[in-house]
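Preliminary data (for renewal application), zinc ion complex.
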Amino acid sequence: MSETERRTIIKSEVKSDCYSGETFDQIENRFETYCEGDMGTDTHRCDLVFRVDELPPGATVEVKVPCCSGCGLPRDEIREFQDGAWKIVGHATRCSCGFDWHEWTLDQYS
Ligand SMILES: [Zn+2]
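Predicted structure:
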């Protein structure tokens, strides 16, 4: 049985504004989203929502994260216990192997 071909109709990347805040040195993440049929991309801070009733059977949603060039692991999450549940509140600026994720972000998006 052959693999069903799938076409990308929505693509989004988290991109950092490295000149955010009153002092223009804060990093603020935003989605840059492209939807099939759009003339260009949309940059926003709204959460992405996928409604099951709006997608056909067989649709897939996949999230890929960058991995450390030193050890191959994804960036560590920073979690806090809030309102009875653990929530992701940020990501580590440095990998356990020493790789500098903050510098990587500046290299990619500033
Ligand atoms: Zn690493």
